[in-house]
Amino acid sequence: MPCKPEQKNIKEPTVTALPTTLEEARARDARDPLRTSRDQFHIPADTIYLDGNSLGCMPKATAARLRQVVEQEWAEGLIRSWNDADWINLPQRVGARIAPLIGAEPDEVLMTDSTSINLYKLAAAAVRMQPGRRRIITEPGNFPTDRYILQGLADSLQEQPELVTLPAEQIADAIDEDTALVMLTHVHYKSGRLHDMAAITQQARACGALMLWDLSHSAGALPVDLNGCGADMAVGCGYKYLNGGPGAPAFAWVAKRHHERLNQPIWGWFGHASPFAMSDDYVPAEGLRQVLTGTTAVLGASALETGLVLFADIDMAVLRRKSQQLTQQFIEAVERRCPKAGFELASPRDPEMRGSQVSFHHPEGYAIMQALIDRGVIGDFRAPDIIRFGMAPLYVGFEDIHNAVEILGDIMDYRHWDDPRYRQRNAVT
Amino acid sequence: MPCKPEQKNIKEPTVTALPTTLEEARARDARDPLRTSRDQFHIPADTIYLDGNSLGCMPKATAARLRQVVEQEWAEGLIRSWNDADWINLPQRVGARIAPLIGAEPDEVLMTDSTSINLYKLAAAAVRMQPGRRRIITEPGNFPTDRYILQGLADSLQEQPELVTLPAEQIADAIDEDTALVMLTHVHYKSGRLHDMAAITQQARACGALMLWDLSHSAGALPVDLNGCGADMAVGCGYKYLNGGPGAPAFAWVAKRHHERLNQPIWGWFGHASPFAMSDDYVPAEGLRQVLTGTTAVLGASALETGLVLFADIDMAVLRRKSQQLTQQFIEAVERRCPKAGFELASPRDPEMRGSQVSFHHPEGYAIMQALIDRGVIGDFRAPDIIRFGMAPLYVGFEDIHNAVEILGDIMDYRHWDDPRYRQRNAVT
């Protein structure tokens, strides 16, 4: 199978002719092939939402769908809805909707649990499939829960895997015959830097290691081709670019060639070959279903399903092109509007190397972000000094970017961020 | 601390003067101290719902609350709602509402994940707290996912625990100095048999073993006194008697004396001492919060919180008395109405030994249950031959029981269950 690098063939229009005025931005929105998508979302008034990489906006259809699930399927159908409303197949049904976004077959993806729990299951399964290999390689500084899960595995699993943490650029050389698994987050949660999935996967597999990707910041944000790259496993999040709602269930992908040998450690009735036989001994289901454990979170799963419907007619190459244009427009506008404000780009300047987000370092980042939020521009802050802006291409437009940077410029010009109200730190996700 | 057996001091009114006619049943409902609770629930028309032990009815307040969470907190508040709507503290807040129902302190209970995932975490932590002890003792034939989880642990954990399965009556004698953990489901999911929590816990602890209870079929159905009994750990379900909705999050309880030594293996950012510091190395939070892993399922958690509000003013001794009366009325009515229909009681006859459910064996159990459901009496079937009826005391009344048994009698008299439509088996939860 040829390894198709997924981000190469759409270079041309990304950096040319980006809007620099309000009029140009509006004109660009008017001819945006994704412009009708925005109407499918509820965007709060007077808000420019650049945090869809943390929690996606609510699709308008979701409110009605959840009323139906709660007030009809639960309230009226009660226990019968496991069959009559097909709750029982939600993990498979939602998984099949995620599959085309990540280059997977419909029966290779299940929606279940949280990203962290799924990572525990799959990373453990990977180590158990690689007898005689003990190392798990990952990088420092990426989304911390991924590392915590691997640290917990190293602390608890019978195989006693050894966790090796190396900077991204040293990983390829470090993969050896003792490496069971390489685990990386595809898009860096802080900087938005994109790993070369095809190249790294190829290096891992050439050495006999398995390759597991966390797609939390890439699924729904750019085209991903797991099978095309020959990857082995992946996990990802439902509440960011997939617009599944707060704490939506996550997903797990395993390449079909591994399904038969898979043995994840958290055995539960939803993963049993015959869940309703209620037999005493665990017999894993065939195929991927053994990855399931407990009862499906029906409310969250139904919201996620509704969010995914909005991707049904989206050309991911078009989405990627718009995403690259939005991020590039944002970088150029900030540097043009606030050249001496002390911002230092924390994201790759090359749009081919970036996910759908832009981050800047600034020593006053926390207060600046609070001032922005106060003015209706919602991004987020990541310690110690990063302000982060996510451009969800389904509902963020070129005018949004223009206006957001104008407000940022205003805040910097007049030192609004110096207001003591903005300097008090709270927990922020 | 004295060990208070929780089901002893309410014997008197349980078996006397139960209604045997429709008029008596209605009169009993009229003077039921819990009668106003029923009005807080949506009960579908023409339905007698005796399956609240599988999926509780929808509290009327939940529909409105979920609209608020979805259409305001998510749609309008977006990422800000983690602070502004206090999503961040849902595990603790909902846990504190569960605490009084199970004899726990408010800071000893967290709502998170599924029952199965929580059992994996706590059983693993228990084994890791007991160096030199390798056995986990449990019983056969109880809710299977509990056994599957323990089997998965035995298959994966560094300590290589050995799972020993013994009939309930042999467990006390088998607990020895090699026993790390005794894990039992308090109320048997099929028969409704209630374990003597105080006695078994005492036996386990006398031998230095830890005691972990699954309260899925008891939390909200009868008074539980974990601390009074000196238990160590517990898990339980949010979607049965707690009325949290389909696939609601579950809960985990750990006695405070163990919090400091706890080390569950699925390390995630919500369990980190400083989740938003995003540091590379896992440092468990103080107290019970280290049991958390991933992002809270906000929709399910909010529904569960609303369901729990209905317990705020409930006297659990009163609830237990009504539950025992309902189950006793049901048993006596079935035996009076259908003496020769072939039903064999599968539940304990002594109401002190029963949870809030009644089961009968019948070789045609599957078809009989389908016929009942067709007539609006919803219970469930458990292989190979058990029909099961749950009496959720907050919304099931004495008239319901009377009418359900009349319909059952009719079905048996006229062999409605012989209808070929009722003989086709589907997946049913």
Sheet bearing the most strands of chain A, described? 7 strands, mixed
Greatest interface? A-B, 95 and 95 residues
* Radius of gyration of chain A, whole Å: 22 Å
| CATH architectural group of the largest domain in chain A | 3-Layer(aba) Sandwich
How far apart are the first and last residues' alpha carbons of chain A, in Å?
40 Å
Tally of individual domains of chain A: 2
Into which percentage range does the β-strand content of chain A fall?
A: 5-15%
Walk me through this protein's architecture.
The structure is a homodimer of 429-residue chains. In chain A, strand 5, helix 7 and strand 6 form a beta-alpha-beta unit. Chain A has two domains: 158 residues, Aspartate Aminotransferase, domain 1; 224 residues, 3-Layer(aba) Sandwich (Aspartate Aminotransferase, domain 2), CATH 3.40.640. The first copy, chain A, has 14 helices and 15 strands. In chain A, helix 1 packs antiparallel against helix 14, helix 5 packs parallel to helix 11 and helix 6 packs across helix 7. In chain A, the strands form four sheets. Chain A has a seven-stranded mixed sheet, with helices on both faces. Chain A has a four-stranded antiparallel sheet with strand order 11-12-15-14. The N terminus of chain A is likely disordered. By secondary structure, the first copy, chain A, is α/β, with parallel strands linked by helices. Chain A is globular. The interface between A and B is large, with 95 and 95 residues. Chains A, B: Catalyzes the cleavage of L-kynurenine (L-Kyn) and L-3-hydroxykynurenine (L-3OHKyn) into anthranilic acid (AA) and 3-hydroxyanthranilic acid (3-OHAA), respectively. Chains A, B: Keywords: Hydrolase, Pyridine nucleotide biosynthesis, Pyridoxal phosphate. Chains A, B: One of its GO terms (cellular component) is cytoplasm. Chains A, B: Its cofactor is pyridoxal 5'-phosphate. Chains A, B: Pathway: Cofactor biosynthesis; NAD(+) biosynthesis; quinolinate from L-kynurenine: step 2/3; Amino-acid degradation; L-kynurenine degradation; L-alanine and anthranilate from L-kynurenine: step 1/1.
